Amino acid sequence: MHLRSLVRARRREAGLSLIEALVAMTVAAVVVGLTATAFESSVTRRHLEGTAAQLETDIHFARSLAAAHQQSLRISFAAHPGGSCYVLHRGPAAHCSCDTTGEPVCQGPATVLRTVHQDQASPVRVMSNVRSIVFDPVKGTSTPTGTIRIVASDGKALHQVVNLMGRVRSCTPRPGLAGYPPC
């Protein structure tokens, strides 16, 4: 009898039952699903923050370059079905924009200093409530004031608010991103 109970014990220890295997696979699937969702949310947030930081840097660059060269500079915004863009340039407001491929298109005496384009496949778009902001080299002001919205494909957004002095503050519309003040 002792031999029979030893054989039975080894059979039970030989592997997993079907129920045990299914439970383990279900737990693993839930963990992977939660991790993938959190990772995707984190990637979207990084795209928003990266684009917002680049825009803020370009605004500060335009302001300081205008003062250094004693020449008015503009940052012009455009959104189209192929994406969105902004162009840092010299010249009148309506003289520079981007085509659907992201290439800057300027007319007359306007010259491009920098272009940033988000194509249709980009996870974020840049939209502004003003067409263009001019940076005055003498007064150190920016007019008009404006709000530039960086919006992700999932609807989350960061706003860059440019005041009269050309300073930028970041905020987020409700429901917002943690760590940013509400707009």
Q: Would you report the number of β strands?
A: 11
Largest beta sheet: what is the strand line-up?
5-2-1-7-8
Order of helices and strands: HHEEEEEEEEEEE
List segments where confidence is low: pLDDT < 50 over at least 5 consecutive residues. none
Count up the helices. Answer: 2
Question: Oligomeric status of the shown chains?
Answer: single chain
Briefly say what this structure is.
The chain is an alpha+beta fold and 183 residues long.
Give your account of this protein's structure.
This protein is of the alpha+beta class and 183 residues long. It has one domain (2-171): 3-Layer(bab) Sandwich (minor pseudopilin epsh fold). It has 2 helices and 11 strands; from the N terminus they run ααβββββββββββ. It has a 5-stranded antiparallel β-sheet with strand order 5-2-1-7-8. 25% of the residues are buried. The model has no long low-confidence stretch (mean pLDDT 86).
Features:
alpha+beta, 11 strands, minor pseudopilin epsh fold, five-stranded antiparallel beta sheet, 35% helix, 183 residues, four-stranded antiparallel beta sheet, 2 helices
